[in-house]
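Aim 2 progress update. The chain analyzed this quarter is reproduced below.
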Amino acid sequence: MIRPLSASLSLHSNRAIQSRFGVAAINSIRQNSRAFSSGGGGGGAGFFQRVSSFLVGAGLMALGTQYTLYKELREGNKEMIKKQTDLEKRLAALES
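Predicted structure tokens:
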């Protein structure tokens, strides 16, 4: 005979061991699956809400990408100008 781990667990001959929290979780999952499978005009976002949320997310991502590219281009340009001035100084030193 296997002993229960705690008072909240019980062992039955043909059943699995379930705690009271496990039973509550199973009941919650069953209720959610019924709500999703009902197909009726239940809660949740509609098609236009989903599309508008997608567009807002895509717009914010585009703004973030544009800012990142702008910053990278400015830093890259500064670095290239610095290298160019260094080369011009070295060339001027060689010519003199």
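The longest helix spans residues 47-95. The CA atoms of residues 4 and 17 lie 8 Å apart. These observations will guide the mutagenesis experiments scheduled for the next reporting period.
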